[in-house]
Write a structure and sequence with these properties.
The structure is a homodimer of 155-residue chains.
Chain A: E1 5-9, H1 15-28, H2 39-45, E2 51-57, E3 60-72, E4 76-86, H3 95-109, E5 114-120, H4 124-130, E6 136-138, E7 141-147
Parallel strand pairs in A: 4-5
Antiparallel strand pairs in A: 1-2, 2-3, 3-4
Chain lengths: 155, 155
Amino acid sequence: MQDSLTIRKANRSDLPDIIQLVRELAVYEKAPEEVWVTLEDYEDGFESVFDALVAEWNGRIVGMALYYLTFSTWKGKMLHLEDFIVTESHRGKGIGKQLFDEVISQARRLNTKLMRWQVLDWNEPAIAFYNKYDVAFDTDWWNVKMLFTGPPAQS
Amino acid sequence: MQDSLTIRKANRSDLPDIIQLVRELAVYEKAPEEVWVTLEDYEDGFESVFDALVAEWNGRIVGMALYYLTFSTWKGKMLHLEDFIVTESHRGKGIGKQLFDEVISQARRLNTKLMRWQVLDWNEPAIAFYNKYDVAFDTDWWNVKMLFTGPPAQS
């Protein structure tokens, strides 16, 4: 049987698989304890705040791109790519490139002026991947966050 | 006559004043040539993608905070503060603090889990201002952007 890859818009029923990928990426980013989110939080935000694309390899979700519309005060309507993940076991098959290209297509369909995302400064494979595209890196901004919630109680 | 300060939600008719403040901040951030946006872009995004608060001093708009709802894959629904500006001639009157506090109130009213924004690493007055609050700085992320548009033709 030939392997099959499908890139498609996520459905509500894909949210548990999406959260699983988020947890995997958080481990890679050395911050798994920072993931406090629940399925209910995803159900609350899905299609009201964010959308996602998923990559299915032989019918199984192995990648996802989660994004939302935002606004650049300098450029106008913008697509922000919040997370972009291919599960470790399925890297090297070109899945990331097809998924990322579909995010770009989606940004263009939504008539955005630009696409923006973030990358950790030590994540060399990701930086090398993005550098294959016509992109610009801004290295002099810090993120600032104020939390209104605490970590979940330990079970 | 006593000075009066009003913090209120922006109306569509405030957009030209908001753009003026954005241009002023872009000069301070050493990138005025990066502002390509038009009033039409703001009208397109207002209330469909972003909202704003304005600060009126004696009836004149002297500050604004532009924000939108986003989604943290680790925490859930989030308010992103894209720009926060008080015009230079009106600093030192506590306007920024009142405006910023109202953004925090708005984030809580919208049931977000956190508020996020960015600051330039050399902008010491802004960093000092944010440090008066219970915030965390992330200094190891780079912004990446891909543009789908070019600078406007010179007139």
